[in-house]
Amino acid sequence: MNKEEQVMSEFRDLFNKLTWLNKGKMEDGLRGYKSSEVHCIEYIHQITDPNVTKLAESLYMTSGAISKLTRKMMQKGLIESYRKPENKKEIYFRLTEQGKSVYEIHEELHNEFRERDKAIFEQVTDAQFDSMLMFIQKYSRHLDTEIEKLGIDPTVD
Length: 157
Prior knowledge:
Elements: H1 3-29, H2 35-46, H3 52-59, H4 63-75, E1 79-84, E2 87-95, H5 97-121, H6 126-149
Antiparallel strand pairs: 1-2
Helix pairs in contact: 1-5, 2-5, 3-4
């Protein structure tokens, strides 16, 4: 196995271990909510003026899938839609109290996981972080270019 294959294999293993280790607590703490709903809640909280287009781009989903997801989330009382007075056409989303509660539970779990993993991150130098971030960003830009070459917009149905 060359270094490139080893890096990709280690990334997959790391991601799978992290998913497996966090899965039980996430499922217990967020019982009744799908992963896609929780991640959508997270982005609605983080994005300025979240709408279907912005959510589709952030979640790498089609706008049709986001429309379907947000409809279900409104039915569950997690989010509500609104329009701005200056733009009656565009529909935006915000969290309801129930949605905010789900967001808080999700954040608390992530904080718990960060605390669990703190010992390893304390051993990493700024230069090592910079190097890892540089690689991840460079690889991400490469994948963006490859997606563009395909002529596919992941947000369009």
